[in-house]
Amino acid sequence: MKWKSFNPIGVVILLLLFLLSCEKTSVQPVKTKSGVQGRSLAALTAATITNDTWWTANGGIMYNQGGYIYKSGSTYYWFGVQYGGAYTYYKTGTKNSDVSFVSINCYSSTDMVNWSWVGKVLTPDNDHFVSSDWLGRIGVVHNPTTGKYVLIINYSSTTYGAGVAFATCSTLTGTYAYNNIQTAVTNVYDNVPGDQTVFVDDDGTPYLVFCDAHGRQHHYVAPLRTSDYLSVNAATLVCKGPSLEADNMFKHNGVYYRLMSELAGWSSSHTYWASATTPLGTTTTPVVMSGTDPSNSYNSQVSFVTPVTGTSGTTDVYVGDRWSDFSGNGTGYYVMEPLSWSGTTPSFNALTSWSLNAATGTWSQ
After folding, report:
1. Cα–Cα dist 244/131, whole Å
2. What is the dihedral of CA 205, 215, 266, 107, to 10 degrees?
3. Which of 94, 120, 181, 348 makes a 20 to 30 Å CA pair with 227?
4. Of 237, 188, 246, whose CA–CA distance to 214 is shortest?
5. Exposed/middle/buried for 29, CB within 10 Å: 0-12, 13-18, 19+?
6. For residue 305, which phi and psi values (nearest 5 degrees)?
């Protein structure tokens, strides 16, 4: 067989054209912190939050009302309660009064938008946690001395009374077991705490933030017992005056902000805010947060605020409970909205959808 004449210059030109074409059409990989090849971290974590919808995880509806988000490393864990009436409302759209306790569930996410099912961390035990008990407004903390994770629960039972319930687990997302119920907190009006959340300061100190259960005109902060976080220490009255509930606290630029709602039952409400320079300091007089009035906090009741911090800043994410199963407040059980700041004054953005970049800590409309 006789070979045809060979032109090496032509071959080189063709090869260069082929390589240039590949460079233009391919996605350029970069090394992430985990060493995995992929697109830039910022591109991976920019995602759109959409309200007025049923939030899902692994194709199933998310049931985690009255919840709390715990961050471990770069992962957010959303704990919350599943009530008996939640599934019924999702299927029928008819509000009901079934507040029976089904479970406390956990979901995880690295971008606060796309969530994965983790599992049930607490279920009825036929003793201290039964289906007829009220469990809600939970928090999760990790005690460095015992190494235990502690689930802190607003609790009411016809057998054991009302107060704060504690359950523990050796792992964050494992099965929690009953530890104790505290039915009175020192310095609290009428002894019993009302709506509550947990706040953990930058130095790791955890506090219970709550109002009284009778009238809700007294607003408190109390540290947890240092040795094990299984008891609430004496409370400090930080605000007295209007009847407000759904007390929660977060920190922004060194200032402690307390958000609260009106007493509206299961319905939505304006959001009030007040601030203090220390966790136990007396707050400013609560005022209605700008932006929450026209839509009643986008048809929700404030639950808590999660700061999302990244390479370029921090977005304070308002998380509100819609309590749709008991109020008929439309589609979805939660809303997430970004807070804006003018100096030391926060304002609420009532948005149907918006973009959050957890890697940079920024948001856009």
Report:
1. 28
2. 10
3. 120
4. 188
5. exposed
6. -125, 130
Sorted by sequence, the CB contacts under 8 Å of residue 351 that are 6+ apart come out as: 51, 298, 337, 338, 365
Distance CA 118, CA 77 (A): 9
Rounded to 5 degrees, what angle do the CA atoms 300, 301, 307 make?
95
**In the block, which residue shows the tokens 């770069």?**
74
CA 323 vs CA 63, 100, 271: distances in Å = 11, 14, 16
pLDDT tens by residue, 289-336: 999 999 999 999 999 999 999 999 999 999 999 999 999 999 999 999
Other beta carbons within 10 Å of 117: 15
Neighbours of 102 (CB within 10 A): 19
Name residues whose C-beta falls within 8 Å of residue 111's C-beta, 6 or more positions apart in sequence: 44, 45, 46, 47, 356, 358
Q: pLDDT digits over 192-224, tens only?
A: 999 999 999 999 999 999 999 999 999 999 999
Phi first, then psi, for residue 195 (nearest 5°) are -55, 140
DSSP of 194-237: EEEEEEE-TTS-EEEEEEESSSS-EEEEEEBPTTTS-SB---EE
**CB within 8 Å of 279: residues ≥ 6 apart:** 199, 201, 205, 207, 221, 249, 256
Alpha carbons 311 and 245: distance in angstroms, whole number: 34
- pLDDT of residue 25 exceeding 80: no
What domains are defined for the chain?
A: 61-364 (2.115.10.20)
pTM of the model: 0.88
